[in-house]
Specification:
The protein is an alpha/beta fold. It folds into two domains: 115 residues, no CATH class; 216 residues, Vaccinia Virus protein VP39 (Rossmann fold), CATH 3.40.50. The protein contains 14 helices and 14 strands. Strands 8-7-6-9-12-14-13 form a seven-stranded mixed beta sheet, sandwiched between helices. Strands 1, 2, 3, 4 and 5 form a five-stranded mixed beta sheet that branches. Strand 6, helix 10 and strand 7 form a beta-alpha-beta unit. Helix 3 crosses helix 11, helix 4 packs across helix 5 and helix 9 runs parallel beside helix 10. The protein is globular and about 70 Å long. The chain starts with a helix and ends with a strand. The N terminus is likely disordered.
Length: 394
């Protein structure tokens, strides 16, 4: 949060909180920070992988080239340019992964994540050429994002893993994802977080189905592609206000909202937490990242790792947006404990350290084992997801 935004949260000496929220909302409208949904989507500039400027003498690796020299250069932080066919890049990445991970399947969760970090860093030195917004490699997939996200440039280079990510994202965007808790498919935009596991969605749906308190309005903080907001609407909430700091997430949720004809029931804003919200709600929902950041956060990592101070900032403001009988609902996990990280549970810490909220209900659900078809190692056999229902004290 910038200095001005941070200052606003403490400006409570000369006016009540509600008066201040109303003033802030009016100011945001005047400065154009609050727009209609179509205006918002058109004006937002989505995040995209940054084109890489080639060094003067890049190392080339083609169909007839051995993969070992390319792997050595990637590990040394030198750029390698893929030539000939798309499969050349795939083969180099496969060799790099084998070099780093080997055949050992007994790594701890922490050790495995360390190797993944090294792989991520090294693999991004492998570059793919793009000409006329298409991959300039034979037998390449057709990736619509190369034209949609890069209207200002036709010829450039991208890290090969970023191209893989763009390809996967294009498949999700064009085919859609059917979640078991929703009636309709969701079509996630590139760079918008979308759930790949359903345990917390099932848990939230179970709680929503049983909850008998007021459900006229809700605020969904960090909505991602909007799945939880759509769950709220499906379970009878009349109006949802959703925010996300990621412009790609706002575009994603907004496009699906318009496609489903829900513009009058769901409003989505780009915002750091509650920054542009001017209303109180019966439900305030927060599905935060579940792991504390160990390094600088970039891209979609912000949906997985949280910076120091995130929960403190959230709890400092959350009570101001709860209606009289409102409930604060937080979805979380014991993943940090499973990963062997010695950190305080942020919800438990809030309840012990302050007298702002009290626990109404706590439920958890064991995380289902991944499909046998997946090639990922399963370090999360002891993980469970949590739902915390809180209310204001007093």
């Amino acid at each position: 949060m910038n200095e001005v935004a941070l200052h606003t949260f403490f400006y409570i000496d000369t006016c009540s909180r509600k008066e201040f929220i109303s003033k802030k909302f009016t100011e945001n409208r005047k400065t154009g920070r609050i727009q209609s949904m179509s205006e918002k989507v058109n004006r937002l500039k989505p995040n995209r992988p940054s084109p890489i400027e080639l060094p003067k003498d890049p190392f080339y690796s083609g169909k007839q080239s051995p993969v070992e020299p390319a792997v050595d250069r990637l590990l040394n932080g030198e750029y390698v340019l893929v030539q000939d066919q798309f499969s050349v890049g795939m083969n180099i990445l496969s060799a790099l992964k084998k070099h780093l991970f080997g055949d050992d399947k007994k790594d701890s969760f922490k050790a495995y994540r360390g190797k993944r970090t090294k792989f991520h860093h090294s693999s991004n030195y492998l570059l793919a050429p793009i000409k006329n917004n298409r991959l300039a490699l034979k037998k390449s997939p057709d990736i619509g994002w190369l034209e949609k996200l890069y209207p200002d440039v036709e010829d450039f280079h991208l890290p090969f893993p970023q191209v893989q990510g763009l390809n996967s994202a294009w498949q999700w965007y064009t085919k859609g994802i059917k979640y078991p808790v929703l009636k309709e498919k969701v079509y996630p935009y590139y760079g918008a977080y979308f759930p790949t596991r359903f345990d917390h969605l099932y848990l939230f749906d179970y709680w929503l189905k049983k909850y008998s308190g007021p459900k006229n309005t809700a605020i969904d903080i960090g909505t991602g592609c909007g799945v939880l907001s759509f769950q709220l609407l499906n379970r009878g909430v009349e109006k949802v206000y959703a925010t996300d700091i990621n412009p790609n997430a706002v575009i994603s949720a907004s496009e699906d909202t318009e496609r489903l004809g829900l513009e009058d029931r769901l409003e989505i804003w780009q915002s750091d937490l509650f920054q542009v919200i001017d209303k109180s709600a019966d439900l305030v929902l927060f599905n935060p990242p579940w792991l504390p950041a160990q390094n600088e956060i970039t891209g979609l990592d912000s949906a997985i790792y949280y910076d120091p101070g995130l929960f403190e900032r959230f709890f400092d403001s959350a009570g101001d947006y709860l209606a009289e009988k409102g409930r604060l609902v937080i979805l979380f996990s014991n993943l940090a404990e499973v990963a062997g990280l010695e950190v305080d549970h942020p919800v438990e810490k809030e309840l012990k350290s302050n007298s702002r909220f009290e626990k109404v209900k706590y439920v958890k659900r064991k995380v289902v084992k991944p499909s046998k078809k997946t090639k990922r190692r399963n370090h999360r056999t002891e993980e469970y997801v949590e739902l915390w229902e809180l209310k204001k004290q007093g």
